[in-house]
Structure formats: structure tokens, C-alpha cells
Amino acid sequence: MRRSHLFLVCLGTVGCGGYGSPASFPVTTAEYGKLVPRLPPCAQAVQLVLEDLRADRSVIGQRFMENTPGTRYPIQMQGDALVYVGNALTLRLQQAGAPAPAGSQATLSVQLLQLTIDESIYYNSEYSAQTTLQLALKSSSSPQPCWQGQVYATASNYGRSASTVNYQETLDRLMDAAIAQLVKTSGFSDALCGKCMGLTVTVSH
């Protein structure tokens, strides 16, 4: 899978957005952070196929002053959100114990339904992020999913307002939470160990 690169567009609040203005930040390569639950040793590799079903892909969130929440400004993420999610899930599945990409015949379909990050500003900022993923695991021997489910995850952060690092760190924490939820979801580990034997990532828009 191709990786998106980090471009230093701005630092701190200068150029990224002051207290009362829009903000933007570049997508990163989804560094792995918090330890996630381990998959059983029998877990097999899967190929990820991703689809972005968000209604609005141009804005990832909103920022607002805590004392005037009715006035909101957009937050934009520069780069391909779907590539970011694919990188994040691939890395974290391997950290959880799934084998590295190796021509797997099983596929994990991932539909991105939600990816948001909001910023509440006072002196510093409180950051909150949410994601919703619809997933289906299929083997090469059957067109019907052998497992399917939905993952909803949240994450939070605190620090300097309009900070590129804080935006990126909040999303990375969100991906940690999402993979932790997925690994613990009923039936997922069993499917990787038996029903869908077989992590290259392909991206569809």
C-alpha cells in the first residue's frame, strides 16, 4: 500500500488557525501508539479492502470557543483519509499478532462511515475524535461473509490549540481504540483462526 507523507505546512497556531479561524493539518502514516489486545496465535493474515462512505470528505471536524460553541470553524485533514485508515489498521493488526501481508486469500472489507475530530478551545484545547467502521470478513471459497460487525471508537486529547501534533496524535489514539474494539469484538478472532484462512491493503474510492 502506498504511504502518504508528512508535509510541514505550519507550526502551532500560526498558519494552522488561530483561536477563531479554520484549521488544517497534514495526514501522517498513522504511527502505532497504545498497546492493543493480542489476537490468538492461530490468527491468519487478511487482505484489507477499504471504501469511504462518508457524506462529506472535505471537512473532518469543527473547532469552537468553549464560551461560544454556536460559532464553529472547519478542520480539514490534508491527504487521503482512507489511506490513513488503511495504514493504521494494517499496522495495528500486525501489532495485535496477525501475520504481515503475504498474498492472503481472505479479505476484510472496511467501510469508513465516520471519521471526525472536534476541538473545544479555551486557553488550550480539548480534542475529541470518533470513528465508525463497518466490517465484513470473507474467505476465497465463499461470497458470503463468515464474520461481519461494526466498530465504534472514541479518543480524546488535550493541549495547545490548533496544534498539528495534537490533531495527529488524537487520530492515532482513535485508531488504537478502533483496533482494540475490533480485536475484542465477538467472533472476529475465531473467524481469523478458522472460517477465513488465508495484509496487503487496496483502496477504493
CATH top level? Answer: Alpha Beta
Distance between the termini: 14 Å
Q: Which range does the strand content fall in?
A: 35-45%
Largest sheet: 8 strands, mixed
Number of strands: 8
Structural class: alpha/beta
Describe this structure in words.
The chain contains 3 helices and 8 strands, in the order E-E-E-E-H-E-E-E-H-H-E. The protein has 205 residues and is an alpha/beta fold. It has one domain (44-162, 174-204): Rossmann fold. Strands 1, 2, 3, 4, 5, 6, 7 and 8 form an 8-stranded mixed beta sheet that branches. Helix 1 packs across helix 2. It starts with 22 loop residues before the first strand and ends with a strand. The relative contact order is 0.25.
Key descriptive features of the protein:
eight-stranded mixed sheet; disordered N terminus; elongated; alpha/beta; 205 residues; 3 helices; Rossmann fold; 8 strands
Q: Helices, strands, pairings?
A:
Layout: E1 23-26, E2 47-52, E3 61-65, E4 68-78, H1 81-96, E5 107-121, E6 125-138, E7 147-159, H2 164-184, H3 188-195, E8 201-204
Parallel strand pairs: 1-4, 2-5, 2-8, 3-5
Antiparallel strand pairs: 3-4, 5-6, 6-7
Helix pairs in contact: 1-2
